[in-house]
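Sample entry (64 residues):
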Amino acid sequence: MYKKMALFVFTAAAALSASLATARPDCRAQCYIDYRACVSNGENPADCRVILLQCYDDCAYPQH
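Predicted structure, serialized as tokens:
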């Protein structure tokens, strides 16, 4: 339960970070920073990679 909650909170933070970062040229760099933080927090690397790839998509195709 705790891991799912932590992953949800991280996903929400990563999505917010990606949406805020789309206005800056370093959006993909921020995605990678978030990915490293996810892995460092002990989350499943495969789940972190999914979030990373979604973040990259958000950078490439902003919702604005």
